Amino acid sequence: MTGYKINEVFESIQGEGAFTGVPSIFIRLQGCPVGCSWCDTKHTWAVDPDKQATVSQVMSEKGDSDSWFNALVSDLLTLFNQQSYNAKHVILTGGEPCMYDLQDLTDGLIEAGYSVQIETSGTFAVKANSQCWITLSPKINMQGGYEVLDEVLKLANEIKHPVAMDKHIEELDVLLERHQHPHNALIYLQPISQQKRATELAVKTCIARNWRLSLQTHKFIGIE
Length: 224
Description:
CATH superfamily: Aldolase class I
Shape: globular
Oligomer: single chain
Mean pLDDT: 91
Number of domains: 1
């Protein structure tokens, strides 16, 4: 069985994309080399061996932390029970969760009765149970130099693209044209940092293209 480096686990409401409003258990994995300039979880980028901690230490921390614990899927299921979580939808996020082989984790969660959503930049192959919902937030021309992979685009159930200016729409158009977008993934535009200009651009483009708007609802209502 594979052990996973976990930055945090918490229960909340999904605030973005197709599952907006759904009670969810978030598992945030540690590690990401993509380097998005607007990332709001930069504390998850580095995997520092000196920051390894126990489950109880990580779970007791408040606010952003670069500490992490190692866990098997059985450890996480035990943690869910200890925390008395009610949600039956699990979101694997990061960091970049697809840096890891997620097969054991997703198999175990689905066998235990959970639905699983993976939030990924598309820059690493998705190794996971085929029943997972794949949320692709394509990171294009980021400082890490990673390319969005064709195979991840083909797997995506939804494409949730962060936008702040016209060039971000153009980049998405090029990506979709290059891969011929052979399936019916839902396409969401998400304004970066709720900026007024970005929101206006996203709304205008969604109406023109018949795409969908994703707002970071959790930030508006002040929950994690």
